[in-house]
Design goal:
By secondary structure, the chain is an alpha/beta fold. It has helices spanning 13-21, 47-55, 68-77, 93-96, 119-125, 161-185, 217-227, 294-299; strands at 2-7, 25-30, 35-37, 42-44, 59-60, 81-85, 103-107, 130-137, 147-154, 234-236, 242-251, 261-265, 269-273, 278-285, 292-293. A hairpin with a 4-residue loop joins β13 and β14. α1 runs parallel beside α6 and α5 (119-125) runs antiparallel to α7 (217-227).
Length: 313
């Protein structure tokens, strides 16, 4: 097939590579415009753009993927189908319907569960035991199109969102090439979603990622895992500013005031009290510093027993 690929982050790379390995003709790549990133605010290329440059395929970077001029550009590429993987913009029907075979998407949930921008993060935060990928036909609604293929995957008990995303990216790539092969063979039916069962996974931002120590240790641990590594679960620590916390372990028998540092161990990390129980965090990122082991932070006197997370940011 002649494929027009749409994607931006690293999550999309396994699918792009799988299409090429399976012999599909990637006629072009559509990715988000280059943006300033990092503390230096230098302009950064998206992972998909970097891959496309190495492949030598045409690259389109519209501020808005719409309008007659843009439609003419993608029409000139002559795609049979569009494949969309975490592109980052809502696409209008005239864009989705332009290729003769329409547009398909890899969505990182078992639709109709967790429609929206952050299904992996919310699957963990909400305590789901399973996740997966759906290959669906795209339409005007939010992740509401008929499903071509689904693959279910367990969520491991200590798995972070970033780890689950890496795994689902590979699973999604395999499911995509299988779906396209079945489409070419005429053996794939699209099953409408049960819209009454739909749940939603809204975009995650810094405010959503702020920890609430009045929750139970189980809930706080899920939040930390679900927000790893972007934007990163965080909490203010007095005048030391907001600290990002990673790699939680629930300690149900521990008791203390919510947000209180109960232990600060150079080997074991930092134990922080919740409304019930406590969480031990094994990795941290203090303001302006790299992500590091919590024990290293303790040895550098970044935190002590009796300190209190929470309060004003």
């Amino acid at each position: 097939m002649r494929v027009l690929f749409w994607g931006t982050p690293a999550f999309a790379l396994p699918a792009l590579r799988a299409l090429c390995e399976e012999g599909h003709d990637v006629v072009g790549v559509v990715t988000q415009p280059d943006r300033p990133a990092g503390r230096g605010r230098a302009v950064a290329l998206s992972p998909v753009k970097q891959e496309a440059l190495e492949m030598g395929v045409p690259i389109l970077q519209p501020e808005r993927a719409r309008g007659d001029e843009f439609l003419a550009q993608i029409r000139a590429l002559g795609p049979d189908i569009s494949v969309v993987v975490a592109f980052g913009q809502i696409l209008r029907p005239e864009v989705l319907e332009l290729p003769p075979l329409g547009s398909v998407n890899i969505h990182a949930s078992l639709l109709p569960e967790l429609r929206g921008a952050a299904p992996i993060q919310w699957a963990i935060v909400r305590g789901h035991e399973t996740s997966g990928v759906s290959i669906m036909r795209m339409e005007a609604g939010l992740d509401s199109g008929p499903v071509l293929l689904q693959v279910e995957e367990p969520i491991e008990s200590d798995e972070s969102a970033s780890e689950l995303a890496m795994r689902l990216a590979e699973v999604g790539a395999e499911a995509l090439v299988e779906a396209l092969a079945l489409m070419e063979a005429g053996g794939l039916d699209a099953l409408p979603q049960d819209h009454a069962r739909a749940t939603y996974a809204p975009k995650v931002d810094r405010e959503v990622a702020r920890l609430d120590w009045s929750r139970s240790a189980d809930e706080v641990a899920l939040w930390i895992r679900g927000m790893d590594d972007v934007p990163g679960a965080w909490s203010p620590l007095g005048d030391r500013g907001p600290v990002k916390l990673f790699r939680p372990q629930v300690v149900p028998e521990a008791v203390g005031a919510p947000g209180e540092v109960l232990e600060a161990d150079g080997q074991e990390g930092v134990l922080i009290a919740c409304a019930s129980g406590a969480v031990r965090v094994r990795e941290v990122q203090p303001p302006g510093k790299r992500r590091m082991g919590a024990g290293e932070w303790v040895r550098g006197r970044g935190v002590s027993v009796g300190d209190r997370f929470g309060g004003e940011a």
